[in-house]
Amino acid sequence: MGILAANIVAFGQPMTAYMFPGAFAVVHSETEDWMWVAQFVLIDNKMRGLFSLLFGAGMYLFLEKAWARQQGAWLQIQRLFWLGLFGLFHYFFIWRGDILFLYACAGMAALLFVGLSRRKQLVLGLFGYLGGALLYGGFLGFLPVIADTDFGKRPAFAQMADELEADKQEALAEGELETGLISSGNYGEWVQYNFSAHTEELPFYLFMFWFETLPLMMIGMAAYRYGLFDGGIEAGRLRKWGWSLLLAGTALTVPVALWAKDGGLTYYGTLAAMAGWSKIPCGLAIFGLVALLALWGQRASGSLAERISAAGRVAFTNYLGTSVLMLFVFHGWAGGLFGKLGRGELYLVVIVTWAVMLIWSKPWLERYRFGPLEWLWRCLTYRQIFPLKR
């Protein structure tokens, strides 16, 4: 559910608008600028971080069950192979913001660290995440100084400033082209463009997130082995650390968001804020969130909790199913709303889609053992047909 809140702008507007409000095909109002700030503080990077951490925990859980049946890591490799194929299909045919291919590749690498002790997994994950945060900060954090200030007008940096401006204009032009292709309703032409223009971006995409995703997967493995998700950590301690980390991470994110807004939410200002300076604060918030959600999940009861739990048990179907649903909402051959909704209106689409997730997931699982795509993934992994209906 949180992933959709993070991704909705890139579903309904050009991909560049995910970080840069100036890429919206409609006017981005002052109120919506503050919405950008709120999303940056509460949602951006944190939902993907949670997803990555939980994926690592799920990998280790899967391996434990495989080891209990005298099966090894090869089964997990098959599982990740099929996930990668799902991801590539998603990337080229449904939505270019796919994360599954990245997870398949990072998951393969994470298998190299499965045999380590939980302490070593945790330490390596934390240092890996910190190293990645410093790398991103050094790589992207200072670009606004060159692109948005008089510093870039100095002779020594003039060429770099020109190159940054050219890259920005290229990204905006690509967004306009993307808007035209999607709005025209010619699905085949859009897919063909994805293959021709974006295949070569996959290695760079992997690099950009590798030093975040792999460390978080390792931390997730360690957290599972320490008992984070099954009551192995005392509740009071979990609550204390959860709130402390979440509040600290959020408090440190707010100045970054306000700095970006005060600078006019420029292209390189938003890039630096989102991918450069916020990684360490986001990491603290992610660890706090997962602690509090793990604590709540062990005690949650009532109709809403049951429906959220059911939506989580069919998370793969909900993730890809949401992308398919967004095709019907935004593409020109269906709803035709791409590039026409502002940020506030896009959040209404999020709320409606959340309702769809919560409405269908529970009754489906009352009749069937797995979600549709969970079942297909399981059958492909084990190379046998499992019964679906209860």
Automatic annotation (TrEMBL):
List UniProt keywords, sorted A-Z: Membrane, Transmembrane, Transmembrane helix
Where in this chain does the record put each DUF418 domain? 224-383
Question: InterPro entries from the xrefs?
Answer: Bact_Transport_Assoc, DUF418
Respond yes or no to whether keyword Nucleus is given for this record. no
- So which residues are the signal peptide here? none
What this protein is called in its record is: DUF418 domain-containing protein
The residues that cross the membrane are 45-63, 75-93, 99-116, 123-147, 204-229, 241-260, 272-296, 316-334, 346-365
